[in-house]
User: Which sequence fits this backbone?
């Protein structure tokens, strides 16, 4: 089954002489239960592709599907609900609520949706991300790496169909990176979730099932079962 699909997606910014064609007809399928890393030079369109796939930005033309849902057909309200109910985001900008504890931040999306967490999964996520002894701390009392791991736990807690990460290990030391990557891997292997990350880090890409390479707004290559050496 397809978890997400881009069909001939074009994204331009600006107009006239200063127009930038960030995506120039990108088509890609993201199969359910697969972990994909998107790599490529700075400015090649990675973030733009991820934002279009995740419904954070509208494609200029082409279409994007999450499951069977065509994003262009949704109203703003339906889009907000789709993001809330079906998508998890692990972005570098943590966006944690400063007045809430780590645990309250992690369960906030579930609380808003009025859903009960799966206790076993929540414990697994918190344990594997090394956050057990940090749950009652507020973001201001946590290191950057701990805050990023709280944001990761928050994205995974509701067990969304598909998880998007923009440089999810970007600011992390190698131990924290390993924890984040292994929980993303576990969500795929143990629950059949779908993960798509943008990364510059060959060690992060090595955790993926597949790497898609972008250059100048095009997909130029694809590699299955990558290793840290083979993606360089
Ligand atoms: P990457 O993530 O691979 O670094 P981006 O998707 O961020 O690439 O950017 C692709 C191209 O689109 C770049 O030329 C970038 O400068 C341009 N771009 C991205 N976002 C905007 C924006 N909001 N306004 C104008 N140009 C943008
Ligand atoms: P990264 O390469 O880490 O993805 P960027 O510096 O390309 O980060 O982009 C950071 C943010 O700035 C993104 O939200 C992107 O859409 C925006 N952006 C990138 N390039 C431009 C640009 N030329 N003009 C306006 N906004 C941009």
Assistant:
């Amino acid at each position: 089954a397809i978890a997400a699909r881009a069909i001939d997606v074009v994204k331009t910014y600006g107009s006239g002489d200063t127009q930038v064609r960030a995506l120039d007809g990108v088509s890609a399928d993201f199969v359910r239960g697969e972990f994909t890393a998107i790599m490529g030079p700075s400015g090649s369109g990675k973030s733009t592709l991820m934002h279009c796939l995740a419904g954070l930005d509208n494609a200029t033309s082409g279409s994007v599907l999450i499951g069977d849902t065509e994003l262009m057909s949704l109203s703003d309200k339906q889009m907000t609900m789709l993001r809330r109910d079906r998508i998890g985001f692990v972005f570098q900008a943590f966006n944690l609520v400063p007045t809430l504890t780590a645990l309250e931040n992690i369960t906030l999306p579930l609380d808003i949706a009025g859903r009960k967490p799966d206790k076993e999964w929540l414990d697994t996520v918190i344990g594997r991300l090394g956050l057990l002894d940090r749950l009652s701390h507020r973001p201001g009392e946590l290191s950057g790496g701990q805050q990023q791991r709280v944001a990761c736990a928050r994205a995974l807690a509701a067990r969304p169909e598909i998880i998007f990460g923009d440089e999810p290990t970007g600011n992390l030391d190698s131990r924290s990176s390993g924890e984040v990557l292994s929980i993303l891997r576990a969500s795929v292997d143990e629950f059949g979730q779908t993960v798509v990350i943008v990364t510059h880090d060959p060690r992060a890409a090595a955790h993926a099932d597949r790497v898609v390479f972008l250059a100048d707004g095009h997909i130029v290559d694809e590699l299955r079962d990558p290793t840290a050496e083979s993606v360089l």
